[in-house]
């Protein structure tokens, strides 16, 4: 007879697919049965490969009414370069999760990029290398960008969280709240013409929305008065569910067209 926990896992994966397209529908409770330990090498998978970004929490009211503190805001606003902001992030314990000894994953790319891509959180490989999107989904992201004639060196890639959460779980609402002012300052230093959110966690966090991804993607949203923001599926979702690729392809074509309209650099011939 099949392992009941395996059946629960398969059902949960099906629900996660529905959540990616529609909205969170809740989690199943596993029966009280003994299950084999996960392979040791699961920790070596990337966050993007293990993520269930479809079930993001909506950001709630701050636990600390004084957060962010005036001192934090002052320190952040004093950062006018990415190097200064990185130095502040290196010393900011508030950015860390409850997983000890993680490495800062600040982000990587052109310091004056016209396109900024924002994911969810670092995983094991990203933590080890200190760079975002270095696993299988990162490779797929590179191919998607190349298909619309944009190289990774021309853009800037970051995450909502700058430290890896334990067990490749979703960032909590509190973690996202603590990290968001640092990301916002990073955006304001780079001043991109366009922002692309990958997945529901990133989209809901920046847009302060509880809407499902299907209602957020495929359009341009005003963001903080100065930026345009688009949402599409996380590359990890495409690795799991190939039928999402058509929608993603339509999204990035719109992104490239708008990039050209805004005079994005490098200014290749308009994408056809």
Structure write-up:
This protein has 272 residues and is of the alpha/beta class. It has one domain (66-261): Uracil-DNA glycosylase-like domain (Uracil-DNA Glycosylase, subunit E, 3-Layer(aba) Sandwich), CATH 3.40.470.10. Helices cover 41% and strands 10% of the residues. The protein has eleven helices and six strands. It is globular. The termini are far apart. The model is unreliable at 21-45 and 47-58 (pLDDT under 50).
State the gist of this model:
By secondary structure, this protein is an alpha/beta fold.
Structural key phrases:
Uracil-DNA Glycosylase, subunit E; 272 residues; alpha/beta
Largest sheet, in brief, is:
6 strands, mixed
The level-1 CATH class: Alpha Beta
**Relative strand content:** 5-15%
* Gross morphology: globular
Termini gap: 53 Å
Quantity of strands, as a count: 6
- Total helical elements: 11
Rg over C-alpha atoms, rounded to the nearest angstrom: 19 Å
Order of helices and strands: HHHHEEHHEHEHHEEHH
CATH T-level topology: Uracil-DNA Glycosylase, subunit E
Q: What is the strand arrangement across the widest sheet? A: 1-3-2-4-6-5
Q: Tell me the helix content.
A: 40-55%
CATH superfamily: Uracil-DNA glycosylase-like domain
